[in-house]
Amino acid sequence: MACAPHPDHDRGLEFDLATLLSRRRTLGLFLGAGAAAALAACTPAPIGQGGAPASSAAATGGAAAPAATGAGPSPAVTRALAGCGTGFPGEAAGPFTADGSNGPNVLEESGVVRRDITSSFGSSSTTVQGVPLEFTLTLLDGANGCRPLAGAAVYAWHCDRDGRYSLYDAGLENENFLRGVQEADGRGRVTFTTVFPGAYNGRWPHIHFEVFESMKNTTGAGRVLKVSQLALPGDACSKVYATAGYGRSRRNFPNTPLAQDGVFGDDGGIRQLAAVSGSPSKGYTASLNVTI
User: Does domain 57-291 have CATH number 2.30.30.40?
Assistant: First the structure.
């Protein structure tokens, strides 16, 4: 897809990576409340909207999560496990990367460096609809006391509210919405403005991301530090999918419980489950620490 330069982000990228990283999992990790609290004490709190610490609990009220899905571990335990020195699971990038490893290469497009990923850029300006979501990844250097990885780069992508991916699903071949690149700030944070992803059969609701050593390294098969996924809590998913426009996701969501997900199922997403706050009417914020 030929894309015209974006007036604010004239930073065209060139990228041609092979399939990046196979799943790397650590099995059988169980933490008691005391261990979780100790880890949490050395873990920087996830940052929410406006730079304030995000709430450690999902919003309350609304429809309850279907019993078959399960909400997964608590956000407090998730943040502790994603914190200092414990590492973060690597996952397969999936079939809809659009990073040059499986068909389209959105990273070659001028305009992909952006915070708001709700619209296509270049030859299309289609904007997706859905419950607003702002998610923040805090990148930490596990080999150096969990110092922030300032200057690292993140490419993030996810499906729309119907579970479809731009550049791949029928009718969306000329769209590139819900994809973008950000550079980590001095605190190691990248934040994307988007909509709450939908659910499709075979997967628990999630967001994909790749972490590069620097913005420069995204332009020429540079070093990839991590490929992984963020999982969304079940209670927030149930509330969002009960709203208008998410009918397909509402039907699909109960079909793949977290424990049966091919990516998160082996440990219940205990390191990858984001801390989420908000409501369908006001939108949500999500945050997750990613130790490299």
Answer: no
